[in-house]
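[Automated response] Your request has been received and processed.

Submitted sequence:
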Amino acid sequence: MDTRTIRRTSVVLPCPLAPDRYLSPVTSLSDGHGQLAAFRYTATDLRELHLLDTDLQDGRISGLCTERTRLEKLRIDSVQFSGCDLASLRWSDSRLSRTVFRDCTLVGAALDDLTLDNVLFENCTLDYSVLTRIRCTGPVIFSACSLRETVFATADARTALLDGCTLWLTEFDGGTYRGLDLRGNDLSRIRGLSHLQQIVIDRTQTAQLAEALAVELELGFGDGGGGWRG
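Generated structure:
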């Protein structure tokens, strides 16, 4: 069983797959029966992708580029996404387990009501995305990802870890984050600190959180001459 481990968090990766020649090549992720297994889907440019009520199991999806993407009520198990660019992604009411996103671009995505269990995002771009009511029921790792101005809204991220990520104006807006591991990141520009009770950090990051709090509270500092400056 392959795993990806960072500190104390380990994600179980998709089951080792047979070489591509043993996976069934498909030209669509919708076969009319709502289920695909042991498949590979490669290098396709689509104007629009809409999947509803579909099971994807034991597969590889690589090089997929879309202009608009809408995914609803998916059940994904042991699937790897690599080098995908899913523009205008709207993904809701779905379950993902043993799933990997590697080198994927999900800029401006709206992810709503997703349940994540053993999911890895590695070297992905999720800038300007909104993750609403995301539930991490098992380990979830964001490694070397860009999360600029991304919002976690009413999320349950107690079993998640972020490592080596860009967290410029990343916002935590409500939710449950006790145990969230934020070590290995620059926290000086994150937002929503009041919601991050009992997270895990290094002692050296305390100064970064103080800087983030000062920015969030729009504090001003006396200049020594009795003046005030922001």
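Summary generated for your ticket: The chain has one helix and 17 strands. The first strand starts at residue 3 and ends at 6.
If you did not submit this request, please reply to this message.
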